[in-house]
Sequence to fold (189 residues):
Amino acid sequence: MKCISWNIDSLNAALTGNSKRALLSRKVLNTIIEYNPEVIAVQETKLPSTGPTKKHLEILKDKFSDYDLVWNCSQEPALKGYAGTIKEIDLAHPDSNRRSAGFTDEERQGFTSLLAKGFIDTFRYIHENVRGAYTWWAQRAITSKINNSGWRIDYWIVSERIANNVIKTEMIDSGPRQDHTPIFLEIDI
Fold:
């Protein structure tokens, strides 16, 4: 089974926008389609709690005609900015980011507790201590992706029971588009 997850940072912009970033996002969507995954999970759509508009659905059904579309949008008062990275090797500059959202002690402890309950970070399981493999680069720092000064804050986690079934897990090249890149998981289920 092939699965792709992407924190898209605005589905509306990716589907209907005309900015340089929107065009880059559409290229990433096309790359995802080329992988022909069974599952595509999209986060941070920035859609209202009612979900996609009729126009969004028309575009998505055309682009992803072989997929069933399922939505679960955040409801108010959803907390914003709570996600993060844990294993410091997943951050280019851990010392200067100790109190930054995404790398706070509380967020790191939350993820560590998932691992302690028997879940496995598939990337670390396959790639062990590899450094410089990130899933996010700051948009405001123009050279962050060029210099690979990023964070790995997107994960596929599985139970210990099926960890040996993981065949491949990697980041999908999103070209010059900064922010999150999609992540790929191939697993024998």
